[in-house]
Amino acid sequence: MTSALPPCPACASVYAYEDGAQLACPECGHEWTPGQDAEAAEETKVVRDANGNALADGDSVTVIKDLKIKGSSSVVKIGTKVRNIRLVDGDHDIDCKIDGIGPMKLKSAFVRKD
Predict the structure, then answer these.
(1) Are residues 64 and 104 in the same domain?
(2) 43: helix, strand or coil
(3) Where are the alpha helices (DSSP H) in 1-114?
(4) Is residue 102 part of a domain?
(5) What pLDDT band is residue 52 in, cutting at 50, 70 and 90?
(6) Which CATH number belongs to the domain containing residue 88 in this structure?
(7) Is residue 73 part of a domain?
(8) What is the pLDDT of residue 3?
């Protein structure tokens, strides 16, 4: 039996199912509205810093609050400059590399654009 539902836009799984007005994927957990263009939805999402400035890939930002690093006694100090950020989906929407610490994910609410 073939499904008349479209495959999951996130993982291309053919096992999508209807969940009320939305479609859901049991393999990756992605939910979407039928007929919604996934690329158009991503383009409309704007990540903003603590001051409301729009952020983009490759921007430089400054940390505005001391941030404890989970699983470590290290701290990212206020005023730390982070260069060449990458925007990603999720709760921690900035992916970066901090000098002296290494790769890290940050929330945009704790940075300001330089």
Answers:
(1) yes
(2) helix
(3) 38-44
(4) yes
(5) very high
(6) 2.30.30.40
(7) yes
(8) 56
Residue 9: give its domain's CATH number. 2.20.25.10
User: Order of strands, edge to edge, in the sheet holding 61-63?
Assistant: 81-82, 61-63, 111-113
Read off φ and ψ for residue 4, nearest 5 degrees: -85, -5
Question: What single DSSP character describes residue 4?
Answer: S
What would the two tokens of residue 64 be? 């505005």
For 86-114, what is the mean pLDDT? 93
As given in the structure block, the two tokens for residue 110 are: 């704790």
Domain span including residue 96: 60-113
Residues 49, 32: Cα–Cα separation, whole Å: 26
CA gap 110, 92 in Å, rounded: 10
Digit-coded pLDDT (tens) for 1-20: 455 788 888 888 888 888 88
Per the structure block, which two tokens stand in for 33?
A: 């509205």
Structure tokens, 38 = 């996934």
